[in-house]
Design goal:
Elements (H helix, E strand, L loop, with lengths): L2 E6 L2 E5 L5 H12 L8 H17 L9 H16 L3 E7 L5 E9 L9 E3 L4 H8 L7
Antiparallel strand pairs: 1-2, 3-4, 4-5
Length: about 140
Amino acid sequence: MSHPAQTSDNELAVHEPQRFRARTEELRDALTGKRGSLATPMDALLRFERLRAELSAAFVNLPADQVDAQIEETQRRLVEFLGVDRCSFGEFSDEKKELRVTHSYVVPGLPPFPRIIVDEQYPWYTDKIRQGGGTLL
């Protein structure tokens, strides 16, 4: 599956994440119950629910000055669990012309995601996000 990756300050390119493909396929097989998977669909669901509970609990009573660091740690854990190469959270500007990335985690060795995505530069991408396509894998 293709993922946008930054190639310069103002450019996105398509990146094919080779090293995480096997993990993603293993999780997909476990969730769909395909033969040869290492876990049953119930095992995969239980692992996901355990992760979700751990991530949620990490924010309970967390001091405000530690929230950003915890969000980035949560993104790292999600990236590792799902076997993807990046996780970014963002918000649209008031005019909805820019998507501002507020938090991002990228596996070591890959370029960071741009901090601001301008609508005119990447109309397909920003339209997908506006339409609820917030999980672009």
